[in-house]
Amino acid sequence: MREDTEKGIKALDQQEDPCSLEEGDPKRMNMEKNRVGLIRTLFESITDSRRVFIAELVDECIKEMGAPPCKYALIGLGSQAIGLVTPYSDLEFAILIEDDRESNVTYFRNLTHYLHLKVIGLGETILPAMGIKSLNDFHSDDPAKNWFYDSVTPRGFAFDGAMPKASKTPLGIGKSPTKPASELICTPQNMVKLLEKDANLYLKEGYHLALILGNVSLIHGELELVDKYNNLLNTSLTERVSSSQLAQVIVSDNEARFESKEVTAHLLDVKKEIYRLPTLSVTYLALFHGITPTTIWSTITSLERVVGLENAHHLRVLVSISAEVRLRTYLSNGGQKENMSALSSMQVGGTSSEELRRVFYYSNKKQLLRYYHTAMPLKRFILNLSKHHMKNVPLCLYDTSPQVQAAIYQRLCSYQEAIGYYEEALQMRQKIYGKSAAHPAIATTLSNLASTWHDLGDDRKVVHYHEHTLAMLWIIYGQNSTHPDIATTLNNLGSTWSSLGDKRKAINYHEQALKMFREIHGENAEHSHIAVSLNNLGSAWHGLGDKREAINFHEQALQMRQNIFSDSVAHPDIATSLHNLGSAWESLGDYRKAIVHYEQALRMRCTIYGETAAHPDIAASLNNLGTAWDNLGDKRKAINYHEQALQMRQKIYGKSSTHPDIAASLNNLGSAYDDVGDHKKSIDYYQQALKIWKIMYGKSAIHPDISASLNNLGLAWGHLGDHEKAISYHKQALQMRLDIYGDSMAHHDIATSLNNLGAAWSRLGDVRKLRAISYYEQALDVNRNIHGVNAIHPDIATSLSNLGSLWQDLGDVKEAIMYYEQSLQMKQKIFGEGTDHPSIAASLNNLGSAWGALGDKRKAISYQEQALQMNRNIYGQSAARPDIASNLSFLGSAWEDLGDLEKSISYREQALQTWRKILGESSVHPVLAISLNNLGWAWEELDREKSISYYRQALAMMKAIYQGDSNNPNITGIEENLQRLINDE
Questions:
Q1: Bridge partners, residue 333, by sequence
Q2: How many CB atoms lie within 10 A of CB 789?
Q3: Where is the Protein-PII uridylyltransferase N-terminal domain (predicted)?
Q4: Beta strand pairing call for 268-269 and 339-341
Q5: What distance in Å separates the CA atoms of residue 128 and residue 122, rounded to the nearest whole number?
Q6: Which residues make beta-bridge pairs with 185?
Q7: Each residue of 617-674: pLDDT tens digit?
């Protein structure tokens, strides 16, 4: 059956897709009719094959049990009855019997058990569906008694589950404290009575038996019993059970489905979100108009006199698309795994859940568009019909208006198409209401345009549209009014100004929005609007440098969202809060806590959108994991995450797109490659990022992103040894930051540029080191202006450390130690006296270096060993990081000075191994050559052959690095050592 279905789908793929034709093409409707016919034929074949298969199983059971004691009819319910069953669908059925004396009922009850065993033997029944009380007691109020989840058994052909709202089998629903037991083994008369009883009792409890029993088909047995049942059913629906009452239950029980947003980029449950709407809608329309539903195709034909031929056609197309998509999803996922995504597919490293892997990536966007062109107006019509709002309004089940098109394309991440349609919708609405009119529909379209330009990263356009929206809303609702749309627009403006770098303006807008939302929902209310404002305030304070305030707002937002949506639910807003908390903790230097939050956000986003989906939120998680692992010292892992993020962003926005997220990924890759010593590759990435920023903001624009790229290029050129070029870039970055933040200079970025200029000047000789001191002192003053003269803050501690480093370079080691000790004390107050923190480890390292320069090797070793142990506690005992390698190198040198060559060699060999892990085993790099040279020096007295071997390796590497520069002191120094050792032999 499944093989035949696969062949049927392949045959369907050979046919031209009607959706490939343009809207309005005269051939399209005929092609749609033809495809509907093919889908109908395929499902009729599946339905009949399944009927024959079940009948054969029943005959096998009867052969073992003996002949039935009376006439019977095994009747199919649900998708079997409406003709949309799949090879993986649950078996929902009942048994009609001629005579319901107890002995007869017992026979068919046993037949059902026997059949159940045969179906279980097929291996596709999950354990919870069997209702084993020790695993899943569905009638208990204790959650601990309904605990088992079967993630192993493939879910396919099985009895309908034993859950209270399922149980559509002859065994029915079991007895509970509030309901008697209810078997579906009855005479036609009693089955109708059961339906009538259910219409008044169980429908209110979400048990859809009356609706299910309203449409049956023969699977095996006597057709005359089915005919008799249907005749009695029609009489009942006319005289005792209102079919319109049953129709109303469909809407009230599925109100969320009818009112939900249309297509999204989230992972779709294809059964609940694609398939059920058409089947429920057709059933609703039939019952509402007094038509008894049969197969869905026949029911639509019966509806032609009510909805018209053209709308009946649209209903058939809607049903055929939903049935085809569900069937393709099941076949692709190998069972009743309903996960489907309309996004592009990309493999994401780091997650491996089998449940997430079973996702069907459906690339036929045009077919989904066709589905929603009918689904959207159908939802609106049924909701209004059920509320008696539009009885006399002509029904039109095909809406391709620009607003609908735009909404679908935006949610599918096709942003350029969305903007084109929103602009068309704006022009259309302005034509209707007046070009200068203030109307809610026009305001909505302006807001939608802002939202889509935000998706594309053009924040100037976003501000333009949001400001237009806000001005219009003030006119519509009043300048001093409190309205959710006004508060939302204020929030959006805050977020956009934050992206544009004006954090104070952002905070002002977010605070206005938060105040308004609390006035609307209540001061202490928990509402998603309030959570959004809290989240945005956290992000803005983070941007201003107040990380503790940022964490405070983000934690409030996360707690509120978990309370609203449940902390066990995968929701985009919860993922956003986790992501933002990770970012705040990363800024505070707690990289492990940051990674925990980022990984939680990534897992949740993969659950929402699909593990291999190409989605901006997943790309953001990958990007931030790359940054956090970079800070933790695992540069290779960092590069891997950043490359995944870049590839995903290029897939979303286009490889040659000038999008801020692509520029950010290029920038981060530049930083990671700079850290591993590939400075030329780093500069290439930084320059690509700078090019994008200048295209986005303008060649002569002044913007924080451009200044950050200039700053990074300065760092990379400095690492490459071109300090003059480094100074040039840092000066450009500083000037731009002064232009952005003002001459008061009270901003973290200005302090950063001053620090970097100090570092660059310090590398240009002793005379220029005095200029470096001036920059470092200015940076210290800026940090004290920002945080307070007597404040204890990481930025002030960093400035003190930088001044210590420079005084040490100038030879005033005691002055250096004074600054280092002030820095260490401040860091210990900030992070805690006994805390392992990277910044404290750096200060211990600096003090070790300074005491070593003063000649106190014992004190130097003590500080360096503390630094080494702290770094290993932070990053792991076997972690490979530059700071750990530097600790090991220093300790090797210090123990050599104290005459302990064995200890010296041990530390230096560890340092070499660490650098090789960082840079790659076959890498050619100056730091590796220096490590090899140091080992050559250390082995001279203990093993001359080993010493010569290390010197030769070091020399070969230096020559490879400085090709054509044979007089380079790094080369000549090793040659002298090697020649001296050879001559001594």
A1: none
A2: 8
A3: 41-116
A4: antiparallel
A5: 16
A6: 95
A7: 999 999 999 999 988 778 889 999 999 999 988 887 777 778 889 999 999 999 999 9
**Residue whose C-alpha is closest to residue 848's, from 878, 880, 816:** 816
Q: How far apart are CA 261 and CA 667, in angstroms?
A: 36
Please say whether the beta carbons of 103 and 127 come within 8 A.
no
Q: Which residue has the tokens 């048994």?
A: 95
The residues pairing with 345 across neighbouring beta strands, listed in sequence order, are 613
Name the residue with tokens 């004390």.
825
Q: Rounded to an integer, what distance in angstroms lies between the CA atom of residue 378 and that of residue 365? A: 20
The tens digit of pLDDT for each residue in 941-979 reads 888 889 889 999 989 998 888 887 888 888 888 888 888
Dig out the tokens for 912 from the structure.
């070499």
The single-letter code of the amino acid at 975 is E
**Token pair listed for 269:** 């449950």
Q: Are 323 and 43 in contact (CB under 8 A)?
A: yes
pLDDT tens by residue, 95-137: 999 999 999 999 999 999 999 888 888 876 655 555 555 555 5
Q: Under a CB-based contact definition with an 8 Å cutoff, are residues 131 and 119 in contact? A: no
Selection from 494, 593, 590 nearest residue 544 by Cα: 494
pLDDT at position 335: 65
For 391-428, the pLDDT digits (tens) are 555 578 999 899 888 988 887 767 888 999 999 999 99
C-alpha angle 932-936-942 in degrees, rounded to nearest 5:
140
CA 949-953-956 angle, 5° bins: 135
Specify the amino acid at residue 830. Answer: I
d(Cα 822, Cα 643) in Å, to the nearest integer?
40
Quick one: which of 705, 800, 815 has its CA closest to 758? 800
* Residue 546 three-state SS: coil
644: its two tokens? 């995944």
DSSP 3-state assignment of 149? coil
Q: Is 343 helix (H, G, I), strand (E, B) or coil?
A: coil
Q: How far apart are CA 137 and CA 140, in angstroms?
A: 6
Q: Which two three-digit tokens encode residue 168?
A: 């559509």
**768 burial class (0-12, 13-18, 19+ CB within 10 angstroms)?**
middle
Of 791, 702, 806, 795, the residue nearest 752 (C-alpha): 795
> In what order do the strands lie in the sheet containing 217-221?
185-186, 93-97, 72-76, 217-221
**Looking at this protein, which amino acid is placed at residue 507?**
I
Using a 10 angstrom Cβ sphere, with 0-12 exposed, 13-18 middle and 19 or more buried, the burial of residue 765 is exposed
At 613, which helix (H) or strand (E)?
none
Angle CA(201)–CA(202)–CA(208) in degrees, nearest 5?
Answer: 140
- Give the CA angle between residues 328, 329, 330 to the nearest 5°: 95
Residues 505 and 543 sit within 8 Å (Cβ to Cβ): no
Q: What is the Cα gyration radius of the chain?
A: 36
DSSP 174: P
Sign (positive/negative) of CA torsion 377, 378, 384, 390? positive
Helix (H) or strand (E) holding 677: none
